[in-house]
């Protein structure tokens, strides 16, 4: 039997950590996922960052469709690289089945359909009041930044580790760790969802990850987060690796920003928060310079911090 530690340690260092599943939110809508198809290195903090991109929302042209879906795209022929959002029409049915709630937002089960294919995403809405398309697109940009930096971090840490430096579970996390897939949708005609306490117009669509969510780190304090019980065999390893990831993002940004506030199901991160000195309220839940200044005082290094 092959040695699982050696196999994980020899993983090729490419940003496409895992091949895309056969049907994803992106593939169903006919998009290329920029995380998998993009160039080898992207400076998501500066070149792409959190700049607002102008989006023209077309009229729906396909009979039976009721939503426009948006996904991050890029033009590698431009220098500097041009980023924006591609768009496709699709059909979505949003149910009142509650999945998860956090940070004044709630997620409801839905069914997204296009060209005879279906995917069951979670539709993420702000509680009590709707937000503009620009707000949801900015969240998608933040999520792409987190996903890309997480992939870079895993590649970097794996390259610096020897097989004996990590346990089997830690290697498994480094091989499988990723942010759940997400996109943005805007309804052609707003729909009322009583459970969501309002009208649904624009939303973030997230890959549905079944299973019990785990809090791996907090978004307002940056010391270790050690719950009293473990719900997943990889929970302790996830906490260790993501603690290192927060430290790594602080260092590679020149102490200007860091990522924390992780929740997830197994090795899939479903929630993350970016604290950044520069971008202020343009990043959802950003505590800005005060959080960045506190981070080195509250963070406790683990065995991987010196390796990353």
Automatic annotation (TrEMBL):
The keyword Transferase applies. Keywords: Kinase, Serine/threonine-protein kinase, Transferase. It holds the Pfam family Alpha_kinase. This is Alpha-type protein kinase domain-containing protein. The keyword rRNA-binding does not apply. GO terms for molecular function: ATP binding; protein serine/threonine kinase activity. Residues 75-308 form the Alpha-type protein kinase domain.
């Amino acid at each position: 039997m092959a040695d699982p530690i050696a196999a994980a340690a020899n993983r090729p260092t490419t940003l496409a950590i895992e091949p895309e599943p056969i049907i994803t939110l992106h593939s169903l809508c006919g998009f290329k996922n920029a995380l998998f198809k993009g160039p080898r290195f992207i400076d998501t903090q500066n070149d792409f960052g959190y700049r607002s991109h102008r989006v023209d929302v077309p009229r729906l042209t396909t009979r039976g469709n009721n939503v426009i879906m948006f996904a991050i795209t890029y033009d590698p022929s431009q220098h500097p690289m041009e980023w924006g959002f591609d768009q496709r029409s699709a059909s979505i049915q949003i149910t009142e089945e509650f999945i998860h709630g956090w940070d004044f937002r709630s997620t409801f089960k839905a069914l997204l359909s296009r060209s005879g294919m279906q995917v069951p995403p979670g539709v993420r809405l702000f509680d009590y009041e709707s937000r503009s398309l620009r707000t949801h697109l900015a969240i998608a940009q933040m999520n792409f930044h987190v996903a890309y930096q997480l992939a870079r971090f895993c590649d970097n840490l794996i390259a610096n580790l020897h097989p004996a430096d990590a346990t089997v579970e830690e290697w498994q996390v480094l091989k499988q760790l990723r942010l759940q897939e997400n996109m943005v949708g805007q309804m052609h005609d707003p729909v009322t969802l009583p459970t969501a306490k309002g009208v649904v117009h624009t939303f973030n669509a997230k890959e549905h990850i079944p299973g019990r969510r785990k809090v791996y780190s907090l978004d307002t304090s940056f010391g270790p987060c050690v719950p009293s019980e473990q719900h997943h065999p990889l929970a302790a390893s996830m906490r260790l690796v993501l603690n290192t990831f927060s430290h790594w993002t602080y260092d590679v940004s020149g102490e200007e920003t860091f990522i924390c506030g992780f929740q997830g199901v197994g090795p899939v991160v479903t929630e993350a928060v970016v604290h950044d000195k520069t971008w202020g309220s343009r990043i959802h839940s950003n505590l800005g310079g005060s959080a960045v200044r506190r981070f080195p005082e509250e963070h406790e290094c683990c065995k991987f911090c010196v390796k990353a």
